[in-house]
Design brief:
The protein is of the alpha/beta class. 60% of the residues lie in helices and 7% in strands. The protein has a six-stranded parallel beta sheet. The radius of gyration is 25 Å and the shape is globular. 45% of the residues are buried.
């Protein structure tokens, strides 16, 4: 009877995962989808603990309360600028959990003197391998996102990586050939150590501008590790949830690579975003026209008398926490009859969907968020493009300069607008470390300063223009 209830609970959990994932495809239903998936996970965890009699009801309740408290605390204390690091950390913890559970199952079988067939041994090994790689790779990604680690490798890195990779394959082979859980333990321990090293070696050469792709890929790794562990435990809910996370992570990784016009292989080999900041081949700095700076009152006049304004958000918007001020600015312009929309680049920010989440927090209407491919053909009819903290995703060098490291990457064509206003603290290059020729275009003006304060000043000027 208990096993039937547990099986039904796993089925309910898997169904909630699938329905929740489907609802995550739209901003309008994303919150409901997230809740459904969370409930599914709760059902699956409780069912697994009850089925295996791991905890008594009191221990289960205490665990749920402690876990919920930690989750609420993290959610309340984590700023939106730190969401990429939090997601990467979650990936790492997920990989660690999968590796530990699979390893614990191998130890349990060894204590019982059980045989271990080749297929089961390989599945255990893959769970430990992928989980270990995800753990160290994710936390190195967190360090790179925070700027704590700037290194992109050392001489002979690829040789060392290949050697470690071959050693992991050898360890997997030994585990498969061991024949028993006890005999496989030494090779499994060696595999775990190699996986931890391999995770560092794989992420270390990847440049900062590629980190959104890396976060998506590590998310896929965590899902694959969970699916492998599900096979080890014969837990259907874990297999389904892991497969969903792995597949969706891989699809998202492919979409991100296409948005950057780069192959996954080129991302993993590293280099992009690691070069020193400075002028690109688009010309010597001495030959460029001077930068034109502007003031909040000029920007307010420019937008108030325009028919259409497009706002392009970037990571600087998240840093300044200016999303609410941007929404207020947009609402004021709309009351004056100006058409306002937001141009969203797929890799703007530090993680997939970063700008969508940021603007949703400020209750910006979903129908005003326009994807890059949809809005680019209309940029020629835009009177003012307001770039708030974006840099690399509006760099026309990607379209005009064959020698630029980002050449071929799709961008938001803000330079096609009648006037471009860039809100930026300084002339420093963006996350990719590449100078942006947009700043020197004749139709571009720079409004230097903190984005939130600059937008507040623009809003104040707009209010002064309104009749008393």
């Amino acid at each position: 009877m208990l096993q039937t209830v547990v099986t039904l609970a796993y089925l309910v959990a898997a169904s909630l995962f699938i329905l929740g994932l489907k609802r995550l495809a739209s901003p309008r239903t994303a919150r409901a989808g997230n809740r459904m998936a969370a409930v599914g996970m709760l059902v699956g965890v409780v069912a697994a603990l009850v089925s295996e009699r791991i905890l008594n009801p009191a221990e289960l309740a205490v665990g749920l309360l402690v876990g919920s408290a930690i989750g609420v605390l993290l959610a309340r204390r984590t700023a939106l600028t730190e969401m990429p690091e939090l997601v990467a950390a979650f990936n790492g913890f997920g990989g660690a959990a999968s590796a530990l559970v699979a390893g614990a199952e191998a130890v349990r079988l060894a204590s019982l003197g059980r045989p271990l067939d080749a297929v089961s041994a390989v599945v255990v090994g893959l769970s430990v391998l992928i989980g270990g790689v995800t753990l160290t790779g994710s936390f190195l990604a967190v360090a790179k996102l925070r700027g704590s680690v700037q290194s992109t490798g050392f001489r002979g890195l690829r040789v060392v990586s290949v050697a470690v990779g071959l050693a992991t394959l050898a360890a997997l082979g030994l585990i498969a050939a061991a024949g028993s859980a006890t005999a496989s333990l030494p090779a499994l321990i060696a595999l775990a150590a190699l996986a931890l090293v391999l995770g560092v070696l794989l992420v270390l050469p990847i440049g900062g501008a590629d980190m959104p792709v890396v976060v998506a890929l590590l998310n896929a790794y965590s899902g694959l590790a969970a699916a492998a562990t599900g096979f080890v435990l014969a837990n259907y809910a874990l297999v389904v949830s892991g497969a969903l996370v792995g597949a969706s992570g891989l699809i998202l990784t492919r979409i991100m690579c296409e948005a950057m016009n780069r192959s996954l292989a080129s991302v993993l080999l590293g280099g992009f975003g690691a070069q020193a900041a400075g002028p690109t081949a688009s010309g010597d700095a001495a030959d460029r026209p001077p930068v034109r700076s502007t003031t909040p009152d000029d920007v307010a006049l420019m937008m108030a008398y325009g028919a259409r304004v497009v706002i392009v958000p970037g990571y600087g918007l998240a840093v300044a926490q200016a999303q609410h001020e941007v929404r207020e600015l947009a609402e004021m312009l709309q009351r004056e009859g100006v058409e306002v929309s937001y141009a969203i680049h797929p890799v703007a920010g530090r993680m997939p969907g970063h700008m969508n989440v940021l603007l949703a927090e400020a209750n910006v209407p979903y129908d005003q968020l326009i994807e890059m491919d949809e809005i680019n053909p209309e940029m020629g009819q835009v009177d003012v493009a307001l770039v708030v903290g974006a840099n690399d995703v509006v760099n026309p060098g990607a379209r005009e300069d064959p020698e630029s490291p980002i050449y071929g990457m799709p961008i938001v064509d803000v330079d096609h607008a009648g006037q471009v206003v860039v809100l930026k603290r300084s002339m420093r290059p963006g996350y990719a470390g590449i100078e942006n020729p947009l700043f020197f275009k004749p139709n571009t003006q720079m409004l230097f300063g903190d984005a939130k304060e600059s937008i507040k000043a623009i809003v104040g000027e707009l209010k002064s223009l309104q009749p008393a």
